[in-house]
């Protein structure tokens, strides 16, 4: 990118972040993801919006493949790769509305094809679909019974149900959401409400890559 092109890209990112609602966690994540994307473009001498307009489908497909490589190297989770891609797609959609692109190249099946499937990562816990279903149903039933019997005091059963759902459907590891005894590092003190974003349906964990990752619960 030239200086002018870099400035245009950075300014457009800034407009996108300012338009992204009240979720500070999402804005922080998007700023990081888009910064990485800009660096990736610059290292390949791509001219930002001009190249995205002309060869956007191929460029985004290559970036999706790069995200898949990071997953295969255990750098990020498959769900994180999907979330990063969605951030880029959201930004490119904004670029269309902002008038710097005529179409969003990230929305095509061809561009998305190299992305890892979420369920590839979510089955790493070695729970078969049947075992997962039985465990979820069991904790659901226990929680319902406890609520009927104890009302608002049924905290343990409800908490256990929440933990099982998180582990079963997000692909996170226990060490990423539970307090680790003897480990005083930030991110190993258990999942707290301060790292949960209820607007974007994500929460932040200290991942396998030894960096913060945003996990979607959708």
UniProtKB/TrEMBL annotation:
Keywords: DNA recombination, DNA-binding. GO terms for molecular function: DNA binding. InterPro entries: CB, DNA_brk_join_enz, Integrase-like_cat_sf, Integrase_recombinase_N. Residues 7-96 form the Core-binding (CB) domain. GO terms for biological process: DNA recombination. This is Recombinase XerD.
């Amino acid at each position: 990118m030239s200086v002018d092109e870099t400035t245009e890209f950075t300014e457009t990112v800034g407009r996108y972040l300012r338009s992204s609602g009240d979720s500070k966690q999402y804005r922080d994540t998007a700023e990081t993801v888009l910064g990485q994307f800009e660096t990736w473009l610059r290292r390949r001498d791509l001219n930002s919006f001009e190249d995205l307009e002309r060869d956007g489908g191929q460029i985004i497909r290559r970036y999706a493949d790069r995200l898949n490589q990071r997953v295969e190297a255990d750098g990020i989770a498959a769900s994180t790769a999907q979330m990063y891609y969605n951030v880029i797609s959201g930004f490119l959609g904004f670029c269309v509305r902002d008038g710097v692109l005529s179409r969003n190249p990230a929305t095509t099946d061809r561009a998305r094809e190299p992305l890892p499937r979420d369920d590839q990562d979510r089955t790493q816990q070695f729970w078969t679909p049947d075992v997962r279903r039985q465990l979820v149903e069991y904790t659901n039933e226990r929680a319902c019974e406890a609520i009927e019997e104890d009302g608002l005091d049924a905290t343990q059963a409800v908490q256990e149900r929440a933990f099982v759902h998180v582990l079963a459907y997000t692909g996170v590891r226990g060490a990423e959401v539970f307090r680790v005894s003897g480990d005083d590092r930030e991110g190993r003190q258990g999942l707290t409400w301060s790292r949960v974003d209820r607007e974007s349906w994500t929460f932040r964990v200290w991942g396998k890559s030894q960096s913060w990752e945003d996990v979607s619960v959708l």
